[in-house]
Prior knowledge:
Bound molecules: coenzyme A
Shape: globular
Oligomer: single chain
Radius of gyration: 16 Å
CATH topology: Aminopeptidase
Number of domains: 1
Amino acid sequence: xxxxxxxxxxxxxxxxxxxxxxxxxxxxxxxxxxxxxxxxxxxxxxxxxxxxxxxxxxxxxxxxxxxxxxxxxxxxxxxxxxxxxxxxxxxxxxxxxxxxxxxxxxxxxxxxxxxxxxxxxxxxxxxxxxxxxxxxxxxxxxxxxxxxxxxxxxxxxxxxxxxxxxxxxxxxxxxxxxxxxxxxxxxxxxxxxxxxxxxxxxxxxxxxxxxx
Length: 212
Ligand SMILES: CC(C)(COP(=O)(O)OP(=O)(O)OC[C@H]1O[C@@H](n2cnc3c(N)ncnc32)[C@H](O)[C@@H]1OP(=O)(O)O)[C@@H](O)C(=O)NCCC(=O)NCCS
């Protein structure tokens, strides 16, 4: 059984997560300046999937906001080599979309984005499974990302989550629910227990329009 929970915002956990990203992220993952990871953890938007052996995967949401303009980037998605092939990126990105909706993070097509390397598993999963679409970053988000030290790279493909992506994520997760707060992985027999401080199942039901 895997457990999925927010990474605590503490001096002890972030270096460990950064180390996991560096070790298993490969070329597709740029390790973010420390303060960006810290903000993600402070916002409860840095997730760690673990089992008895330790970290299995991480998924962070980076905030690039100024005043009323809010942008969130799904980034640093890394599944450890021993845990790949179970559809965990699809699962985790779907959980992130639910989390974004649940935390009243302003969501409107173009606010939630991801940057992928063309021809990779990550591109395939985000486009063909999660439903991300091509997106051209505007001036403000381009400036904010540059100021944060990770400017957009013309060799990468920029994607964003359209409005329908949250419902799609909720329906997908609902199809995987095994019992209260426990979900099957998309491929295989493993299960994931969700340990959030808010009622994840209820939010999934609501976003998937389940009638009570
Ligand atoms: C990307 C990553 C998270 C995916 O892990 P995962 O969730 O275990 O992926 P899975 O093996 O379950 O699924 C990968 C899918 O991509 C497909 N795929 C694999 N390599 C591919 C490639 N080069 N091009 C297109 N599709 C590819 C697989 O066939 C599979 O699709 P399918 O289910 O339709 O057959 C993992 O490979 C990883 O951590 N890589 C290193 C870090 C990284 O690149 N992160 C993304 C940065 S944004």
